[in-house]
């Protein structure tokens, strides 16, 4: 049986094929604004590969239950089961290799997130003998792997980020191939998006999303405008399962889905105004009397059904000290933990909220009791530690931090690296150190970083005919960047 499917065609009419076996090893990221054809693309991929591989779809909008009629998927109504039953269902799905759609449309947003997180975790934790290959599709992935803390409870956010990270980072060895689709790349956690090797980028209009999409596709900024101009149902594809160079593809037709879409126009009714008014207002009181009473609020979950967060469990284990706490020792240890964290490999590539939660977890693990730095203070201290500013004299630290007052929080780390090197009079700045401080491996993003800092008046960049760039920090010495 061939592992190739056709997802669409180039402008020349040449079919564009997708290697499902390669996809199982490399994962897929789909991005597109609402109305770009993102759900149509996912449906096409699922329909064409339905007979080849097990499929599990996390569906928060109720878009995919129609797969059941044509291809035999089992539709699971997430609102009809308890958390324990959802986990048991996930284990049976892996055991029996069933293709399913987890329909979360009947749940509130936070319930959707918790249900999906427990379901994905149970898929991931299945016994080794049930590690069969499966495509796991998560639509509206920015809900389940947010780049920043939103309005959801903190334990819910940690639960869902852990589940999505396991799916995308460690799922391959367990046979799980993650396919995540999002409307906004900027709202999707970077450590989730970074694990995909295949990309299908649809129309998007915001600069921040275009820049991230262009980086993932290996395109220059001037080429990123193509993403804004894409028509509905057209995507730019790249990845080992599709193509080795960026390729424009128009997605082919699908068999399932809604026959009528709300985006189209419909003729208005030709009812006379007085008749329409009568239809709207006649016998309202009797209709209200016949209406069923509003449903009672759901009962509070039982304690045994709610998984306490790790942080909460650790906090309950900390006994109230009998003696006064040495706040200076606690503050010193907090500084050491931030310094250790800043030097860890790969930590800069995590989101700021993930770094902060790691810091808090380590403090609780060591039973540190005392005032903790808030998120903003932590980010500044993390940037200072990562740049090695603590090695300098206190007066010089104060001087550099005074220059950094106007720097945005997410750019503070790389600016401090540049400022420290400028003061030391180094002839070259370590690009790897600069990239690490910025949390990127893209030379293009480093160039854009320097351009942005220059526009803000924080640095002055000069490039000679040999291509070497000299970066000057007003108030400090000069460094050269090759």
TrEMBL record:
Organism listed in the record: Erythrobacter aureus
GO molecular function (one): ATP binding
Protein keywords: ATP-binding, Nucleotide-binding
Protein name as catalogued: ATP-binding protein
AAA+ ATPase domain segment(s): 24-214
Source taxonomy: Bacteria, Pseudomonadati, Pseudomonadota, Alphaproteobacteria, Sphingomonadales
Domain of life: Bacteria
């Amino acid at each position: 049986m061939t592992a190739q499917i056709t997802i669409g065609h180039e402008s020349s009419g040449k079919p564009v094929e997708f290697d499902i076996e390669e996809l199982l090893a490399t994962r897929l990221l789909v991005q597109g604004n609402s109305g770009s054809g993102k759900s149509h693309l996912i449906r096409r991929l699922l329909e064409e590969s339905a007979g080849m591989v097990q499929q599990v779809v996390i569906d928060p909008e109720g878009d995919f239950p129609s797969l059941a009629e044509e291809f035999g998927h089992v539709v699971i109504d997430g609102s009809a089961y308890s958390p324990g039953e959802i986990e048991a269902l996930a284990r049976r799905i892996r055991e029996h290799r069933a293709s399913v759609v987890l329909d979360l449309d009947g749940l509130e947003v936070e319930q959707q997130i918790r249900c999906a997180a427990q379901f994905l975790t149970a898929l991931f934790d299945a016994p080794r003998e049930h590690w069969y290959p499966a495509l796991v599709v998560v639509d509206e992935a920015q809900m389940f792997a947010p780049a920043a803390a939103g309005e959801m409870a903190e334990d819910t956010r940690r639960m869902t980020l852990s589940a999505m990270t396991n799916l995308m980072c460690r799922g391959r060895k367990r046979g799980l191939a993650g396919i995540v689709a999002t409307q906004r790349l900027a709202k999707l956690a970077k450590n989730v998006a970074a694990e995909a090797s295949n990309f299908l980028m649809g129309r998007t209009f915001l600069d921040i999303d275009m820049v991230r999409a262009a980086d993932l596709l290996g395109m220059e900024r001037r080429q990123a405008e193509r993403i804004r101009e894409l028509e509905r149902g057209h995507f730019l594809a790249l990845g080992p399962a599709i193509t080795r160079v960026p390729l424009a593809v128009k997605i082919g037709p699908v068999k399932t889905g809604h026959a009528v879409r709300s985006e189209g126009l419909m003729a208005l009714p030709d009812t006379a105004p007085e008749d329409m008014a009568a239809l709207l207002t006649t016998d309202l009181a009797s209709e209200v009397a016949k209406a069923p009473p509003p449903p009672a609020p759901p009962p509070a979950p039982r304690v045994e059904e709610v998984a306490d967060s790790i942080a909460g469990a650790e906090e309950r284990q900390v006994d109230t000290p009998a003696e006064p706490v040495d706040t200076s020792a606690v503050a010193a240890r907090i500084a050491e933990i931030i310094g250790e964290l800043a030097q860890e490999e790969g930590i800069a590539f995590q989101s700021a909220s993930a770094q902060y939660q790691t810091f808090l977890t380590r403090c609780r693990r060591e039973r540190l009791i005392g005032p903790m730095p808030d998120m903003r203070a932590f980010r500044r201290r993390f940037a200072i530690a990562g740049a090695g500013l603590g090695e300098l004299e206190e007066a010089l630290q104060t001087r550099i931090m005074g220059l950094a007052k106007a720097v945005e929080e997410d750019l503070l780390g790389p600016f401090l690296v540049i400022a420290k090197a400028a003061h030391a009079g180094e002839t070259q700045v370590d690009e790897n150190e600069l990239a690490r401080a910025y949390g990127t491996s893209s030379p293009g993003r480093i160039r854009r970083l320097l351009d942005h800092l220059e526009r803000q008046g924080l640095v002055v960049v000069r490039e000679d005919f040999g291509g070497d760039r000299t970066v000057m920090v007003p108030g400090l010495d000069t460094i050269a960047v090759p």
